[in-house]
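Q: Hand in one record:
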Amino acid sequence: MVTKFTDITDKVVPLFQKNYIQGVKYLDFLAFVSVVELMNNKMHLTEKGLNQIKLIKAGMNKGRDN
């Protein structure tokens, strides 16, 4: 169970870095990690950072250009 942001950075991300996701979902994981890094650096608190996150989100899952 994830109850705080540090659970994501300390547990979830390392788990999936150690146990690779296969297929196209790996690309979504990489995008998720980039958002986590932006948030870890407090970029989500700026308009520019929030726009970056929105762009990343738009390219995930069915929005991906492959």
Q: What stands out?
A: Helices lie at 5-18, 25-40, 47-58.
